[in-house]
Amino acid sequence: MEKQRFIVIGLSDSRQQYFKPEVVQLIKDGKVFSGGLRHREIVQDLLPTGAQWINIVVPLDEVFAQYAPHSEVIVFASGDPLFFGFGNTIIKRLPDAKVELYPTFNSLQTLAHQLLLPYEDMRIVSLTGRPWHEFDRALIERISKIGVLTDREHTPTSIAARMLEYQYGNYVMHVGEHLGNEEKQRIRTLTIQEAASIIFEHPNNLILVKNRNENTQHFGIPDEFFQHLNGREKMITKAPIRLITLSVLGLQSRSSFWDIGFCTGSVSIEAKLQFPHLLVTAFEIRKEGEELMRANSRLLGAPGITSIIGDFLEVDLSMLSPPDAIFIGGHGGKLKEIVMKAYCVLQPGGIIVFNSVSEESQQLFLEAIQSCTNLSLIQNMRVSIDQFNPINIIGAVRRC
Length: 400
Description:
Layout: E1 5-11, H1 21-29, E2 32-35, H2 37-43, E3 52-55, H3 60-67, E4 72-78, H4 86-93, E5 98-102, H5 107-115, E6 123-126, H6 133-140, E7 145-149, H7 156-165, E8 171-177, E9 186-191, H8 192-195, E10 204-210, H9 239-249, E11 256-260, H10 266-274, E12 279-284, H11 288-299, E13 306-309, E14 325-328, H12 335-345, E15 351-356, H13 359-371, E16 375-383, E17 391-398
Parallel strand pairs: 1-4, 1-5, 2-3, 2-4, 6-7, 11-12, 11-14, 12-13, 14-15
Antiparallel strand pairs: 7-10, 8-9, 8-10, 15-17, 16-17
Helix pairs in contact: 12-13
């Protein structure tokens, strides 16, 4: 059976597209075309009489069902179809199809060209139908030049607001609207404060360039930087213990970290700042923990931490990313039960770490480990700092 053929043609936003002669001929000979509504507006006058058009809209299953009866489909896509584009989607969904590609500059390249801005060192982040995670990571890593693909939810305005909320106003934002459109194109260079108060036209994208001066980044956040529970300033995992705990957790090679009983949020925030690739989910039974996490994560520049308030033993965990690292910072007298529930969702090779401040809690944790068939003790380290009581940092790994 002959392979289905897709001819994928990249477009700018110009209403006067230039195509190589071979592409012009392909369009003239084509019968079935596809693209978004904006793409159709751009190429409408180039389509042959009687051409069939398949709109690319979600759900994509329906779009590909419409493709199925046709031996050849000409698809129009934005810029470079392999740059977070629909060309990737075709290749993933139909790996046996024959794909021919005719790209043009992607929108971030176009913006950089207009600005005469070298972009070989630019980190690319797509927020088009995607969560904030990779954008947050780029901010925490203090990337000096970030190119961002936007959508109608993740706009330059909402991006600027998020940056200000988490103390990342130390950038200049270059915003391109309707790039390539001779009548509508607009490029603006703004402070983050200015961008947060402007409504931008869609489609748009942006490039962030960091200013040189910035605050010091700490390896081990000083304890006094955190807001605390009223009257309970000592209810925090101290910075040296925090760093040793993160080392035992091995977070550099983990992907999903859970902090059970986060209190001030110190462990979650430290983990996010030191390992910004992590998905961090934090649990706390006290209602006041929600505001503490909000305040501390914003003050210290740690976006992207998911906070869940309530009794961990009653929380539905089915919709959360399964953890491969868990820290138990508080247990409310239900340590064994928490270990058992955490063990049930822990991925193979994942680790649970508990910091014990008493012989009783240490014994309870060791008994809980023994009751979990595939959980093995790998670490029991006793640490003492200044005048504080010694702490046992205990780690157990799930074998399978």
